[in-house]
Amino acid sequence: MKELMKKNRLRIDQDLSDPDQRKNFTPAMYAQYQVVVPVIFQYAHGKLIDIGCGDMPFKKFILKKTTQYDTIDVERRVPDVKFIGDIQNMAVLNDQSYDTAVCLEVLEHVPDPFKAMSEIHRIVKKDGCLILSVPHLSRLHEEPHDYFRYTKYGLQSLIEKAGFKVVSIVPQGGLFCFLGHQFSTLFFK
Predict the structure, then answer these.
(1) SS3 category, 172
(2) Inter-axis angle of helices 27-43 and 175-184, nearest 10
(3) By three-state DSSP, how is residue 57 classified?
């Protein structure tokens, strides 16, 4: 079953490699693009690291706003991932080396999100910016590495304990978006 899901995910990634096509695949993806892209255009700048980059669905938008685009993930889903590693220990990255960090839909897959956030804070410059998104409602995915769901209160606590200042927390989607996403992915289990 897991092999079939992985195979289907690869097929979806190949068939929907263009971000403009991908954003309309499910209501959840559409909602994420509606929130994340404007935030990227507002806050991303300078040297940026895409943490847990996966297949880099927001690369097209990030490149328009930054001077350097680096990536890190636990595996190489696409050929141009720069660093392979665990976000809970990014020793390969220097302290305060990035103006912006993007970490989208990753923290739910990390056994120790406090450690991961501490590492992110370590590599972002003092006046830098973190753009983060996490699910509140979601089916289990990427099993067995699916550990958490976040409320806005839990997320704020996590961010502040790491040393970041919260500028805003913007909800995306909702119950109907969640249900629509479940329906659209029914055939890919």
Answers:
(1) coil
(2) 120
(3) coil
